[in-house]
Specification:
Number of helices: 13
Shape: elongated
Largest sheet: 7 strands, mixed
Order of helices and strands: EHHEHEHEEHEHEHEHHEHEHEEHHE
Distance between the termini: 43 Å
Structural class: alpha/beta
Helix content: 25-40%
Low-confidence stretches: 1-13
CATH superfamily of the largest domain: Response regulator
Mean pLDDT: 91
Strand order of the largest sheet: 7-6-8-9-10-12-13
Strand content: 15-25%
Number of domains: 2
Length: 311
């Protein structure tokens, strides 16, 4: 299977916990992205190869492999499956309703069918989430600081996870912003989807989360900027690629906090009794250089609030 093959861990000894790790991206990228989780697990006493073995299953950006990888993980009967983003968590949940599952960066766990409610998950899944009702008003506010006449927002979504859009769109409508939507199921469709949004006379483009669009972020931002349209997104790497600003939950903090849920379960707690926690730390990154190239003025008040400014 090449890089898409499972990264199998050694057989754990007596007393050593096996934790399956299911993720849609490549091993190299995911090991870096998940470092806050692994670091926190060590601080909680879970030392890889000593007290815990991680059975890694990474899909090499081929999300269609997630159901099979999840089923193979379940067949090896780990004590827990750690599946940080929505596509991985959903695949794991469909593969088992008995093995505990912890997610670390899901937008709408109730809407995705992962939990019955945030306060009482009620099944075998819990974790850390960020809700659209937390982010939508703030993103609209920030956009209106740089685009006072904002009326239409183009939304480019990864087809594997449209939960963020489904939650965001009605909230934006209440704030007087129409969201026009296009989803991307594969890399070949990305430029066409962006072209459809550009033809919708949007005032700005929001690029949704998901590994497919993340891996194409530079090209997507370039296409929008060629039409003099500002891009915003959730993750700071989009600002590095030319988005005017990004505002979203601090991913590292979410992953770090999800380790505490894993720790509790490995020590005997039931996921059904561990409330889903919401993100509490958020990052604002402003690309002043990109804004200037588009003729957009960033208010000084916004620059002062930014966690990072790219000049």
């Amino acid at each position: 299977m090449g890089q898409a093959a499972l990264l199998r861990a050694q057989t754990p000894g007596r007393g050593v916990r096996r934790v399956g790790v299911l993720a849609p991206s490549t091993a190299a990228k995911k090991e870096i992205n998940l470092q806050p989780f692994f670091d926190q697990m060590r601080q909680l006493g879970w030392i890889e190869g000593d007290t815990v073995v991680y059975d890694r299953a990474y899909a090499d950006d081929q999300q269609q492999l997630l159901p099979r990888l999840a089923a193979e993980l379940v067949a090896r009967d780990p004590q827990l499956i750690y599946a940080p983003p929505t596509p991985a968590a959903v695949a794991a949940r469909r593969a088992t309703d008995t093995i505990p599952i912890v997610f670390g960066a899901v937008h709408d766990p109730v809407g995705a069918g992962l939990v019955a409610s945030l306060a009482r998950p009620g099944g075998n899944v819990t974790g850390i989430c960020v809700l659209a009702e937390t982010l939508a008003p703030k993103r609209i506010q920030l956009l209106r600081e740089i685009l006072p006449n904002l009326k239409r927002l183009g939304w480019l979504a990864d087809a594997s996870d449209t939960s963020e859009y489904r939650s965001f769109a009605p909230l934006a409508a209440r704030l007087g912003v129409t969201v026009v939507f296009a989803e991307v199921a594969n890399p070949q469709a990305a430029e066409g989807a962006m072209g459809r949004l550009l033809s919708e006379r949007a005032d700005a483009i929001y690029i949704g989360q998901g590994p497919l669009l993340y891996n194409m972020r530079a090209r997507m931002v370039e296409l929008a900027n060629q039409q003099r349209l500002p891009v915003i997104s959730a993750r700071a790497q989009y600002a590095d690629a030319g988005a005017v600003f990004t505002y979203g939950a601090a991913l590292g903090d979410q992953l770090r906090r999800s380790a505490f849920a894993v720790d509790k379960i490995l020590r005997g707690a039931k996921p059904a009794n561990i409330p889903v926690e919401q993100a509490t730390l958020f990052d604002l990154v402003v690309n002043l250089r990109a804004a200037k190239s588009l003729g957009i003025t960033i208010p000084r008040s916004m620059l002062l609030r930014a966690d990072r400014v790219i000049e």
